[in-house]
Structures are given as structure tokens and as C-alpha cells.
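Suppose you are handed only these lines of text.
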Amino acid sequence: MTESELKSNVPTEDNGESNLKQVEAQLRRMTKVFMDGADPIVIRDLNGNVLDINRETERVFGWSREEVLGARTRHLLSPEFRELADDTLRRVQRGETIRNVEAAVRTKSGEVVPVLATVFPLTDENDKSVAYAEIVKDISELKQATEELRQRNRELKQFANVLAHDLSAPLRTVRSFADLLQAHCGNELNEKGREDLRYIVEGVQRMDRLVADLLDFTQVGRQSAAYTSVDCEQLFKQVLSNLHAAINETGAEVTRESMPTIHANATQMVQLFQNLIGNAIKFHGSEPPKVHISAEPREGVWEFCVCDNGIGIETESQDKIFDVFGRLHNDDEFPGTGIGLAICKAIIEQHGGRIWVESEKGSGSVFRFTVP
Ligand code: ADP
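From them, the structure of the protein bound to adenosine-5'-diphosphate can be written out as follows.
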């Protein structure tokens, strides 16, 4: 029921008693929703003092209603969140609604519970803020699950790293013996023998590239990378010089708008741009590749964009391409290992950003990513 509906039910002299009963019933229902709500709800006056809490607040934090009534409870917040709480109070006093504020609250038994709160003003009949409410979500389980996932991820990367290392040695052996065989017996082999040997060498070369890329992937995020001020104009010159051969070979036209200076790991940024621009050049259609790069400031982040006129990607496959080995083509159509975009995603996530693609099959692709 909305506030105006509640107001319209206020009894007048004509409809007196029955409306009064209705209002009472509605208030009882709303009180029940408040008291038995599935999440903790705290109501405070405009100075932050507790006016009321529901049962779930008592259950999650262990403090009884009587213990917290009239208290500011700021001291129950972990110290690093106290300033944020003061700021939230100032904002809600101005009439703002603040969603998903993350904090940690100490319970009566001394445990610290991570929470996500939505804070909004409560107004009187003249729409004047008179108090505010906090709906608090206990996110302990979510946090624990996220930490477990992170740990699993680290273990998986560690496993892939060991695997790639262990595969390198036997691969080198096969490669050098294939080379020896070619050098010593190449002339004695017939046409079929030479062809078979070529397949072995090509197979080993492909495996070598896969292992090297897999090693690169497992390196991202293993050591804490050094962050410095990175001038993306300079970075570009380096990336274009690294891609010189591919640009010449395909007749690609690479253009860009002015680029910002960001706080990032320079080596990883070169790798990221090189993978994206390299792909934009590689996956071209019948026209020579045209690649355009831009960057725009958005709320607290820079949003970069690498746009091409290539073969495009159908909607159903757009998530898959960021997975390790997530390729949409075989090696004969477009050579590659399917690890480049997984590396890009790992780099961007390590920087606290997001990467995604907007594309349609046959109409080019736009890869976007953000860096805080
Ligand atoms: P690779 O380039 O080695 O195949 P990536 O991880 O870089 O691996 O890319 C994964 C897949 O995503 C590619 O195989 C391709 O199918 C698709 N893809 C990536 N970039 C583009 C692009 N600019 N245009 C069209 N398809 C792309």
C-alpha cells in the first residue's frame, strides 16, 4: 500500500468507524511485515539514533531491542566503515536513498558480520524527512562462497601452471628429435615420410604455442603487479609497432582518439591492447581491417573501446570467447590458441574493471573494457 493510499483511508466524520478499522488492520499488517521481515530492518531518527529494530536484527546481531533503542550504534561498525556511515547519514539527511552500502557490523558475541545495506528516508505527510530506515542484508555466506571460489580459482591456475611447465620439457624433446630426424634422415625419407614428419613438427609447434599462452594466462595475478601511471598514447605507439607485421600484411587501418593516462600495470596493458587490436586485425572479412580505438570517462572509470569492421560474433557465443580455449574457428580458418581473451579478462579483473563485447555476426565487433 502506498503512502497516499494510506492517507486516503484516514477516517472522516462520514465514514468514521469502518475506515478506522481498515487503517488499524493495514497498520497491523505492515507492522507484521516489518517485525517478521526476512532481513534486518533498523529505523533511526535523523541523528542516527535507533527508534526501532525488527526481530531479524535481534537474531542476526544478537542485541535486543531494549539494548539498542536510542543508541547511535556507530561503535558497532568496523572502524574502517565509520566514516562511510557518517557520509551515508549526511546523504540520507538530505533526502537521498543510498543503495548497497557495504559494511561490517560487530555482533553481541564479538563476531564481525559483513553486510550490504540500503538506506532511505521516511517522510511525514508533508514529504519532510523525519527518520530513515536501513534494510540490511547479511552477506556472510556470499562472502564465504566468493572466497572459496577465489581459492578454487587460484588452485586451478596453479594446476594449469604446473601442467604447462611439465608439458614444456617433453615437447622440447619431441621437437629436437624431429629436427634431428629431419637433419639426419631427411634425404632418405620418401615424399610420404617427409609429409608425416612435417605434421609432427607442425603439431609440436601448435602445442608449443598453446603451452606458452597457457603459461602467460596462469601468470596474470600470480604476483602482485606493479601499478604506475601509464600514458596510453605511448602505450599505443608500442602496441602498433609490435603489430607492425600484421598491419602491413593485411593493409589494416588503425585509428584512435586521444588517450588518457591511467593507473595500471604497463606490461599487462600492452598485452591487453595487443590481444584486442591483434584480434580486430586477424578476424577481418573480405574488406581490409579498419580498427578504431577510443576512451571515455564514465562514473569513476575510463571506458575503452576497440571497434572493428570484421566478421563479428553471434550473440550466443559472446560469453564463451572469454573462456580459456573458447574459440569459434579452427586453426585453418584463423590461427590462434583461444587464450588471448581469457588473458584480457584476467588482466581487466585484476585491475578491478569489466570487459565485454557488443557484436553481431557479419557486422564487426566492439570490445569494451573499463579501468577504474
Ligand atoms: P584466438 O585469437 O587465439 O583464437 P582469443 O581468446 O583471442 O583467441 O579469441 C577467442 C575467439 O573469439 C576467437 O577464436 C574468435 O572466434 C573470437 N574473436 C575474438 N576477437 C574477435 C574479433 N575482433 N572479431 C571476431 N571474432 C573475434
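What can we learn from it? The longest strand covers residues 112-123. The chain has a mean pLDDT of 90.
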